[in-house]
Design brief:
Blueprint (H helix, E strand, L loop, with lengths): L15 E3 L2 E5 L9 E5 L2 E5 L7 E5 L6 E7 L7 E6 L3 E6 L11 E6 L8 E4 L2 E7 L15 E7 L2 E6 L7 E7 L4 E4 L1 E5 L4 E8 L4 E7 L6 E7 L10 E7 L6 E8 L4 E7 L7 E6 L28
Parallel strand pairs: 1-20, 6-10, 11-15
Antiparallel strand pairs: 2-23, 3-4, 4-5, 5-6, 7-8, 8-9, 9-11, 12-13, 13-14, 14-16, 17-18, 18-19, 19-20, 21-22, 22-23
């Protein structure tokens, strides 16, 4: 609307292409980078299930390992994402591929415990939770109760589901105070992909999501903007197609609020090694000035269809 005086979140945009720049492959000890967070100019990352309870501090310029943080009092059942605030680091041990876990938790670690040593040992507190809307714990490959994303805003943590069943994502909100909670989702959005990472930028009031389709042959980034309070899907939503590879498992995303960049990580999959990539934030501003992908046109018939 050319006469509009404010952005009310009703704009729609064509998908745009996002070309991430490779900063460097991670060392071999980081083969399954599952989450990233921007931390004192560096990057925090970690592996997921089947690996040790370790957080790695890597150089944001090239992905080289600088320090290793070992959590002594908790194991890595399935660490899937990481975020920070000014006082703490939060690690989401809530990977739930089959939807059958009952020990979901977020580990809370003091930033003040991170020294300059090459190897650092810390203890964590646990924020335990379950989903109020989950009634069955029978393992299923199409469940909606896997989660691989977390970000911090204010005094709350926000968890986004990776819905293999319906391709949506749901947002659950929890306190940062260690305790046991039963969480109910308060909003959802049909992202048409599997969300694997998220972050919030307090400077621009934006949320970034990263994920991929079921086949992992296409990766997608969403930028959410112009929302009010924590109604993240109530504002504008811009979709980007990450075009670097035809097959890569994008897992983590983080805003670099100092240099106005976005970092993403991927696991080792196919011919792509676990690596760190970056994108200038200005390239992800929701505007139709950017060129859209020229996608082929298809006609579906009959519509609606039943089996064929």
């Amino acid at each position: 609307d050319p006469n509009a005086m404010q952005n009310n979140g009703s704009c729609t945009y064509s998908p745009s292409q996002a070309d991430f720049t490779l900063k460097g492959a991670f060392p071999s000890v980081i083969s399954e980078s599952s989450g990233v967070a921007f931390f004192n100019g560096d990057i925090l990352t970690h592996n997921d299930s089947g690996n040790g309870p370790e957080i790695f501090i890597v150089d944001s310029a090239n992905g080289n390992l600088k320090q290793t943080i070992i959590v002594d009092n908790y194991s890595n059942t399935d660490w899937e994402d990481i975020c920070v605030d000014k006082n703490y680091i939060y690690v989401g041990d809530f990977g739930n591929n089959g939807g059958s876990r009952k020990d979901l938790k977020i580990l809370k670690i003091k930033r003040s415990d991170i020294t300059t040593a090459t190897t650092i040992h810390v203890n964590a507190e646990a924020i335990n939770f379950s989903y109020a809307d989950q009634t069955s714990y029978i393992s299923s490959s199409s469940n909606n109760f896997d989660c691989e994303s977390i970000f911090s805003m204010g005094d709350s943590l926000y968890i986004l589901s990776k819905d293999r069943g319906d391709g949506k994502t749901r947002i659950y909100k929890t306190s940062k105070i260690p305790s046991t909670y039963i969480l109910s989702y308060y909003t959802e959005f049909d992202v048409h992909c599997l969300i694997t990472g998220a972050d919030y930028n307090p400077k621009t009031n934006e949320v970034a999501l990263i994920g991929y389709d079921q086949s992992k042959f296409s990766s997608y980034m969403w930028i959410l903007s112009d929302f009010k309070k924590d109604d993240f899907f109530g504002g504008n939503k811009k979709k980007f197609i990450a075009s670097n590879f035809h097959y890569w498992q994008t897992e983590g995303i983080a805003f670099d609020t100092i240099n106005n960049k976005i970092f993403i990580s991927c696991e080792s999959a196919g011919f792509v090694l676990a690596s760190l990539f970056t994108l200038n934030h200005t390239e992800a501003i929701p505007t139709d000035i950017q060129p859209s992908l020229n996608e082929p046109s298809f006609q579906l018939f009959p519509n609606p269809a039943t089996e064929y």
